Amino acid sequence: MIFAATLLLAATMTANAQTAETADSTKMKSAKAAARETAYRETVAALENGDFVFQTEQVASDRTQTIADVDSTANFIAVKRDEGIIQTAPPMGPDNPTIQCRIRQRLQILGNELTFDKRGNVTCRLSVTIDDDPQTITIKLNKRRGEAVATCGENTCALLGRIVPASRATIEQMDGESAETAA
Phi and psi dihedrals of 25, rounded to 5? Predict the structure, then answer.
């Protein structure tokens, strides 16, 4: 009889512990989902307002079928309403992150069109001029993962990274340039 009571008590305690772990796990998942949703909404608002930075983490080449990690503070597209900057700082190679050079070009933003698919993924098409050459920069945001891909015109590479509101971006500044005048 005592054995049965002890067994019943142990089973009850185990069930209560598992219920508590499940509740904690559910709360953590809910908090992560809420944080992801908040970040997504802030990103969409930044895209709609034309006040964002696409921070490139990797460059994928169509030609060579390679992906290179890059410095996200040195490789970016910064947009501030009707103007912006695109800076690329390619590494020496896929296995050598040393920056070869920095190429910075001013953008004149002529239009910003956002479309959403049924899953909430966003496509942002920026009509721009780069050195008086009309181009289209397409940025696709994956809602679930928070990752983005940017392509420009007929370019043979894609930029992989994240979109952040300009106020929270960490990007390289040129000499004598403040964060407010960077884009």
Answer: -65, -40
Residues belonging to the chain: 183
| Contact indicator for 128, 135 with CB cutoff of 8 Å | yes
pLDDT digit string (tens) for 146-169?
Answer: 999 999 877 778 899 999 999 888
Do residues 136 and 150 make contact, with C-beta atoms less than 8 angstroms apart? no
How far is the C-alpha of 133 from the C-alpha of 118, rounded, in Å?
A: 34
User: Does residue 70 contact residue 97 with C-beta atoms inside 8 Å?
Assistant: yes
Q: Which pair of structure tokens corresponds to residue 9?
A: 């008590």
- SS3 labels along the chain: CHHHHHHHHHHHHHHHHHHHHHHHHHHHHHHHHHHHHHHHHHHHHHHHHCEEEEEEEEEEECCCCCEEECCCCCCEEEEECCEEEEEECCEEECCEEEECCCEEEEEEEEEEEEEECCCCCEEEEEEEEECCEEEEEEEEECCCCCCEEEEECCCCEEEEEEEEEHHHCCCCCCCCCCHHHCC
Contact 54/43 with Cβ under 8 angstroms?
no
pLDDT digits (tens, 9 = 90+) for 80-135: 999 999 998 888 776 777 888 888 999 999 999 999 999 999 999 999 998 889 99
